[in-house]
Amino acid sequence: MQTFVTLQYEQETAIPSEYDDVRTPEAYVRHFLREFSEEGDVVFDPFAGFGTTLAVAEELGRVPHGVEFEADRVESIRDRIDHEENVVHGNALELDPGDFPAFDCCLTSPPYMEQSMGVNPFRNYADGSESDYETYLRDLTDLFARLADLAAPDASVLVDVSNMKYEGDVTTLAWDAAESVSESFHFEGEVVVGWEGEARDDRDGGTYGYGYDHSYCLAFSAGKSD
Ligand SMILES: C[S@@+](CC[C@H](N)C(=O)[O-])C[C@H]1O[C@@H](n2cnc3c(N)ncnc32)[C@H](O)[C@@H]1O
């Protein structure tokens, strides 16, 4: 596994610009799906967002399946892919593994949380949706435990995540997510993704939108024995 790659930070499909830092650039998905999956594989994304993983999976001849909480995003994914019936509108934290085929590769980016945030990312930060960082990490741990029941025996799980630097404070989300997912999958290691492109300074600088010029792909495999 190559542990450092440099990719261009750009979005290939247009959506309202306020959502740009919510999305995973296509180049990221293409790079890691090529490395960790094969043609015909089932690719799963429980936080499908605007459908980058699902659309690129289809482009590469994989079979996409996913879940997304926001109805309008589900519709925009269905406009983007041929397997439109494979996108479920729902809450990933409540997903029933019996409703999906086993996946060969899960590539996902969970909604991020900074330690100081009080609203719940798994309710899309809605007003009144209280949460805290510990609860968030517990929810993440529980979700990946559910996904372990959906993974094919030699499946890969890839998590697009970064640490977050905001107003002088760093939330070590990447480290903490690695620990959460490791409860159910075997950690193979992290790939540092260096981002090239126009700097974004809306969150303490860095090319990437969270105060850094890099993020990670955390790579796991199924079959954790303990
Ligand atoms: C970081 S974004 C993923 C973006 C995606 N990788 C893309 O490129 O479009 C996280 C997504 O998770 C969705 N989400 C948040 N809570 C969820 C939940 N409980 N169940 C399913 N999806 C959820 C959000 O609506 C958001 O679209």
Summarize the structure in words.
The longest helix has 16 residues, at 133-148. The chain has 226 residues and is α/β, with parallel strands linked by helices. The chain contains five helices and ten strands; from the N terminus they run E-H-E-H-E-H-E-E-H-E-E-E-H-E-E. Helices cover 24% and strands 27% of the residues. It has a single domain (4-14, 23-198, 212-221), classed as 3-Layer(aba) Sandwich (Rossmann fold), CATH 3.40.50.150. Helix 1 (26-36) crosses helix 2 and helix 4 (133-148) packs parallel to helix 5. Strands 1-9-10-6-5-2-3-4 form an eight-stranded mixed β-sheet, with helices on both faces. Strands 7-8 form a two-stranded antiparallel sheet. The protein has helices at residues 26-36, 52-59, 71-80, 133-148, 173-182, and strands at 4-8, 42-45, 63-68, 87-89, 103-108, 151-161, 164-166, 169-171, 186-196, 214-221. The structure holds S-adenosylmethionine. S-adenosylmethionine binds at residues 22-24, 47, 49-53, 67-70, 73, 91-93, 109, 111, 122, 124.
Radius of gyration: 16 Å
CATH class: Alpha Beta
Mean pLDDT: 92
Q: How would you sum up the major sheet?
A: 8 strands, mixed
Main β-sheet, spatial strand arrangement: 1-9-10-6-5-2-3-4
For the record, the CATH architecture stands as 3-Layer(aba) Sandwich
**What is the helix content?**
10-25%
Supply the CATH superfamily name. Vaccinia Virus protein VP39
Low-confidence stretches: none
The tally of strands reads 10
Q: Count the helices. How many?
A: 5
CATH fold-level assignment: Rossmann fold
End-to-end gap: 24 Å
